[in-house]
TrEMBL record:
This is L,D-transpeptidase ErfK/SrfK. Residues 114-248 form the L,D-TPase catalytic domain. The keyword Cell wall biogenesis/degradation applies. The keyword Transferase applies. Pathway: Cell wall biogenesis; peptidoglycan biosynthesis. Pfam families: LysM, YkuD. One of its GO terms (cellular component) is extracellular region. InterPro entries: LD-transpeptidase, LD_TPept_cat_dom, LysM, LysM_dom_sf, Transpep_catalytic_dom. Belongs to the YkuD family. It comes from Halomonas shengliensis. One of its GO terms (molecular function) is peptidoglycan L,D-transpeptidase activity. Residues 1-29 form the signal peptide.
Length: 344
């Protein structure tokens, strides 16, 4: 998105979930419009008093000249998020007047609420910047052969207008294609690190900007964490050196909203983590943990569908009141038994 486009949409930005969050849970409608969302800085949300759900899904209407990629950036959403939430809409040439879903409701990761939390499968970063506030932004992470490692580290040095030294492997690949890469790329529009970089305690790994923002929200890097230029600039100014960074991989998340409803999100599992990983069992364990020892009134068919067709959209796992109650049995089935019965 160029500067002119950003300026044209400045008035709209102040009204959308990408630059705001609902502050009053009691005032939230089931399907709020962008105009109904109260303003906070981009990506900022008030932490819920109870539960772990922030934000809301809402819809906007495509205007002439919009691309889905532009809309995603404007609303603090990444490439894969907007694509999965709107599978029937063209990414690059949506028709004017088309209704687009903005997947703005999110479940906080099951991790300590401190510093920065990066969820790789979700392609999203969370920053607990101050008491009562969490920030969240779309990111790019390492592609399969250069996967971003999980683990706990910290921020170290911050660099503005960094130079970039392509790794030896990249220079060899470029030379093999007949396109020799320079040993150092100076600051400027051709620098893939963008204008701001935050080094991590993991050697050679950074959180940085990009000169190709259309790729944010995809697995395209060589292991580093990329952000939209405006998002990394904001973090660069505010994140202290020594901030804890917890890199996790949670393709399935479950959590309660403030109304006592169990919600879940499911994302495609990273290719390198699929071997030996059972997404359905992982999801059942998460849901079972949320309920404790009680037999949950879960829609097991919905749970399985969510896991088998992950799209990142937050949905309810609770059975509706209209559904016929399950006859009592001498012994209540386990969560594993119940889901097996539900999908026969």
């Amino acid at each position: 998105m160029n500067t002119a486009t950003l300026a044209k949409r400045g008035a709209r930005l102040a009204l959308v979930l990408g630059t705001g969050a609902l502050l009053s849970a009691g005032a939230m409608a089931a399907e709020p419009t962008a105009d109904e969302v109260r303003e906070l800085p981009r990506g900022h949300y008030a932490l819920p008093e109870s539960g772990s759900v922030i934000g809301e899904h809402y819809t906007i209407t495509v205007e002439e000249g919009d691309t889905l990629i532009d809309i995603a950036r404007e609303h603090n959403v990444g490439y894969e998020e907007i694509r999965m939430a709107n599978p029937e809409v063209s990414l690059w040439a949506p028709f004017a007047g088309t209704e687009v879903t903005i997947p703005g409701r999110r479940i906080l990761p099951d991790a300590e609420r401190e510093g920065i939390v990066v969820n790789l499968s979700e392609l999203r970063l969370y920053y607990y910047s101050k008491e009562g506030i969490v920030e969240t932004y779309p990111i790019s992470v390492g592609r399969e052969e250069f996967s971003t490692p999980v683990g706990v580290t910290k921020t170290t040095i911050k660099v503005k207008d960094p130079a970039w030294s392509p790794p030896a492997s990249m220079r060899r690949e470029a030379a093999a294609r007949g396109e020799p890469a320079p040993s150092v790329v100076p600051p400027g529009p051709d620098n893939p690190l963008g204008r701001h970089a935050i080094l991590l305690g993991l050697p050679s790994y950074l959180i940085h900007g990009t000169n190709k923002p259309e790729g944010v929200g995809m697995r395209v890097s060589r292991g580093c964490i990329r952000m939209f230029p405006e998002d990394i600039e904001s973090l660069y100014q505010r994140v202290p050196s020594g901030t804890r960074v917890n890199i996790i991989d949670q393709p399935f998340k479950a959590g309660w909203n403030e109304d006592g409803e169990l919600l879940a999100q499911s994302f495609p599992t990273l290719e390198e983590n699929r071997e030996g990983f059972e997404p359905l069992i992982f999801a059942i364990d998460k849901v079972s943990k949320a309920f404790g020892d009680e037999q949950p009134p879960v829609d097991y068919a919905q749970l399985r569908e969510l896991v088998e067709s992950p799209d990142g959209v937050t949905v309810s796992l609770m059975r509706t009141a209209e559904e016929a109650p399950t006859p009592e049995a001498p012994k209540a089935p386990s969560l594993y038994d119940a889901i097996a019965v539900a999908v026969r």
